[in-house]
């Protein structure tokens, strides 16, 4: 029980990160899914026009590294406050807009750029700094907020929108996010390292000068960058294709809906299981196991065994891995890099993760056009998962253990 005393001591930064991540940009995908039918119906937008929103996600590849760098230079509080206070204003702007799709895209683009300062790249730093013994579990708690808040809020906001309209729904969410933003800023520490480090401190100097040159000279960084890319190729399917993949196995629509729930439950379980495991076992082992699970699951989906039990087990393995990522990556960054450059490294790795999603969609499109089946991409993604997990396992070599911090 002594180990859990950290939660009593550092409940403020943990609560701030939980509220911050669950009430801004990370919540946006759930908001878009809820409101898409209403916007398309009222304004007469086509599905292809709505699909243009996916292109905007490419901006995240550039925004997250910038947000991470700013966090290391100026601290979590001022950087996060910019996006946290802006996010509700963008929701109000959407609620008041006309039916011009390009006006909506403009708002969405500005929201993505400015509110990238409210993601795990920024908030996970304050948790990683505060916790040491139970850092893995603390990161799991903070990172679980978007799906938990969405799971609890989606039925409520859907009922509210059906009664009061989608504009009132956006305003209601804006009020919720504004309240969370104020609470988040109030709970975040006012000063962060390296800002309060003594003059001449090497960590502080590293955060200010030549940081990218230092990072790019580290073989360990390039290993993690490549590994993050490879293990995220399977999650291209998780973002928008899960139901289609399951139906392609000959599973009924009712069973397919159950598979989606299985994936969601697996994600939550995987997040907390990985968080607890990281506090007891070597991080590179947990990473190798967690990111290796889709290798088995994807091959199961690519096989000729298409019973609901086999498909369900495959989807569960993918869900467990998808959930563990939010803990494993930031935890490993704290183990292999100085805390003074934590968010800078996280931003770069997050960009690698995002690029895997984007390139994965391109490869998937080519595979579907060529073979009219998901099987080819399942095998490619499985190979990526296996190779990436092996790279993470190599982080346990003595040469890298000596380089920690």
Looking at CATH, the homologous superfamily of the largest domain is MFS general substrate transporter like domains
**CATH class of the largest domain, anyone?**
Mainly Alpha
Unreliable stretches (pLDDT < 50, length at least 5) are: 192-200
How many E-type strands? 0
Order of helices and strands: HHHHHHHHHHHHHHHHHHHHHHH
How much of the sequence lies in strands comes to under 5%
Mean pLDDT across every amino acid position? 85
General description of the model:
The chain has 405 residues and is mostly helical. The protein is 79% helix and 0% strand. The protein has 23 helices and no strands. It starts with a helix and ends with a helix. The relative contact order is 0.14. About 2% of the residues have low confidence.
Describe the structure concisely for a colleague.
With 405 residues, the protein is mainly α.
